[in-house]
Amino acid sequence: MAKRIRRAAVLGSGVMGAGIAAHLANVGIPTLLLDIVPRELTKEEEAKGWTLEHKQVRNRLVNQALERLLKQKPAPLMSKDNIALIETGNFEDDFHRLAEVDWIIEAVVEKLEVKKEVFARVDEVRTPGTIVSSNTSGISIAAMAEGRSEDFQKHFLGTHFFNPPRYLKLLEIIPTEHTDPAVVAYMKSFGEDVLGKGVVLAKDTPNFIANRIGTYGLLVTVREMMQGGYSVGEVDSVTGPLIGRPKSATFRTLDVVGLDTFVHVANNVYENVEGEEKEAFRVPELMKTMLDNGWLGSKSGQGFFLKQ
Ligand code: NAD
């Protein structure tokens, strides 16, 4: 039987992990937020004269994810006091503490090998009955669970939040053939009643439902812009404010999502489908060049819009 969720842990304190932890804190669930210890400096940090050691110490003590949650707009926390429900730590010192929680949500980089490694470690420390889920944007849930214990597989599923988690109501729940139906039913009611989400059950197909359609729409728009010779501002305006979507126009969405994550998500369909649909998911050269330059959007300070 699955545990009732009273305490949770989020693995990965990036754009989504921190946002999910904030949403859990907003509904009163104490949450442990863990990330890896950084192994390199960003260009900005180098320019500030930081050393790697300095960054690692700073990351443990101050935790940049919490700083971001307090500064970010729109605010991920309903009240700044909710931050007290988020406890931070790192994969090296605190992973064993996952044994204390009832739900472990993985939100690390969108790479199957990395996620599989993380779940192998989770399988060693979790207590039986702990629900484990992935926030993947579209990687196969079944592939991530390959090789894991029977109890893990029974309690494992996809819980796909949308960005920003406090504000976007959709939660896709993706079971595998091994997920216990009682766990699926529990997570559906937990998602609706406790997290306040609109829950949709999705099949374990590349990018599930919303991202299969959404990625397609964004890629078509970028290609149309290049072929038509339009500017980013023009396209953003006609796919945004002028049609009543003030905050979620094409390029602002891409900047908020993060170009690296978007490219992984688009490639996931490109690599896993055949036939007519495949070409529509090919990532345009423009986006690849931006990625090579580190223009990832809000998280790197530069994306389609120059000032974030
Ligand atoms: P992000 O790049 O902001 O954060 C990823 C985190 O993973 C970082 O904090 C990083 O330190 C950590 N990480 C990197 N390598 C690792 C490793 N080897 N082991 C453990 N942790 C590692 O990414 P994100 O946007 O928060 O995405 C996280 C997950 O959520 C991905 O699966 C992504 O597809 C999914 N997702 C993203 C969005 C979005 O809009 N960005 C929306 C829905 C779902």
UniProtKB/TrEMBL annotation:
Domain of life: Bacteria
Domain spans labelled 3-hydroxyacyl-CoA dehydrogenase NAD binding: 8-205
Every 3-hydroxyacyl-CoA dehydrogenase C-terminal domain range: 208-305
Similarity annotation: Belongs to the 3-hydroxyacyl-CoA dehydrogenase family.
Protein name according to UniProt: 3-hydroxyacyl-CoA dehydrogenase
Whole-protein coverage range: 1 to 308 of 795
